[in-house]
Amino acid sequence: MKHLLSTREMTRAEALQILDTAERMGELGQQSVRKLPALRGRTVVNLFFEDSTRTRISFETAAKRLSADVLNFSPKGSSVSKGESLKDTAQTLMAMNADAVVIRHGASGAPQQLATSGWIDAAVLNAGDGKHEHPTQALLDAMTLRQHRARLAGVDPTGTDLAGMHVVIVGDVLHSRVVRSNMWLLSTLGARVTLVAPPTLVPVGVQHWPVEVRFDLDEALAEGPDAVMMLRVQRERMHAAFFPSETEYARTWGLTHERLQLLDAAGLETAIMHPGPMNRGLEISSEAADSPRSTVLRQVANGVSVRMACLYLLLTGEDETAGADPFSTEETR
C-alpha cells in the first residue's frame, strides 16, 4: 500500500493489518517511554487546508512517537493566501525531502490528485477531503468497536473483524465524509450499518450504498444496536434550511437524555460514539456524551494509535532490518 486515500478499495486483510498494528502501537501508552525509533530520519508534513484540532494534533503526535521529524503547514500566513496552487505547494514540500504528506483539503479528490499526479514522490494520507472520505477516522472507529466487542466478550480484539455487529449512524449524512469512510470499512469488516437522518440530509444515490436508511431514530435504537454514532451537524457547509430549527432537530434526531435513559432501562450495551467536535445539546446531550457508554475519549486515544500504524506501514513496508524489533522503545534525549 503506497498511499491511504480511501476505505472503499481497502481489503479486509489490509484493514485488519492496520488495526492489529494499531493495537500494538496503543501499548506504548502503558510504557514509561512512549516513543519508537521506527521513523527516525523520516519527515512527515501535515498539510491542512482546513481547520482541525483533533486530526492534526493526532497525526503530529503519531509521527513524533515514531521519531519522525514533523512539519506543520497551514494556508493562513503562507503563500497559499497569495494564490499559490496545490501543485506548487506540494513541490515546495518535496524539495524539503518529505517522506509522507498528510493532507486535509476542502476539495473532494485533492489527496487523490496529489498521490497520482506525479507532482511528488511521497506517501499521501487523506486526513479528510471535502465531503468525500476520512479514512483514518473510520479506522479508529473500527478499532474502538473491536475493543467494545472484545471487552464485553472478555477476549483479545487482535485478529478479529466486526462480523455481526450492528452500527447505527445518525445525523448529517449529506455533508459527512466520516460516514462515507465508515460505511465502506464497517461493511468490509462484516458489520451491518443503518443510517438515520432527516430526509433533507440523505444524499442522492444512497440506495447504492451498503447501508439501510431510516428516518426514525427511536425505531433504530429499539433494535438494540451495538453502537450508535452521532454525526456533527455541519453548519459551516449548510447554505439552506435543512431542518425547521435546532430544537426540532435535537428532539427528533438527537441523542437526548431521555433516549439515553431508554437505553439504560432496556439494559442494552450500546456504545455511544461521536467523531467530534460535538455540538452538545444539538446532536448529542451532555449526559450522553459524558456517560459511561461514551467512547469519545477512547476514539481520540485510538486515533493516535491508528495513525501511528498507518505511517509505520506506509513508510517502512514492515521492513525489519538486522532483526531489530520495530516495537522496542529506547530513551531519547
Automatic annotation (TrEMBL):
> What is the designated name of this protein?
Aspartate carbamoyltransferase
Residue ranges annotated for the Aspartate/ornithine carbamoyltransferase Asp/Orn-binding domain, each copy included: 164-314
Gene3D superfamilies per the UniProt record, alphabetical: Aspartate/ornithine carbamoyltransferase
Where does the Aspartate/ornithine carbamoyltransferase carbamoyl-P binding domain lie?
A: 2-147
Q: Which residues of this UniProt protein bind carbamoyl phosphate? A: 54-55, 104, 134, 137, 276-277
Q: Which UniProt keywords apply?
A: Pyrimidine biosynthesis, Transferase
Q: Which gene encodes it?
A: pyrB
Where are the bilayer-spanning segments? none
EC number(s) of the enzyme? Answer: 2.1.3.2
Q: Which InterPro entries match?
A: Asp/Orn_carbamoyltranf_P-bd, Asp/Orn_carbamoylTrfase, Asp/Orn_carbamoylTrfase_sf, Asp_carbamoyltransf, Asp_carbamoyltransf_Asp/Orn-bd
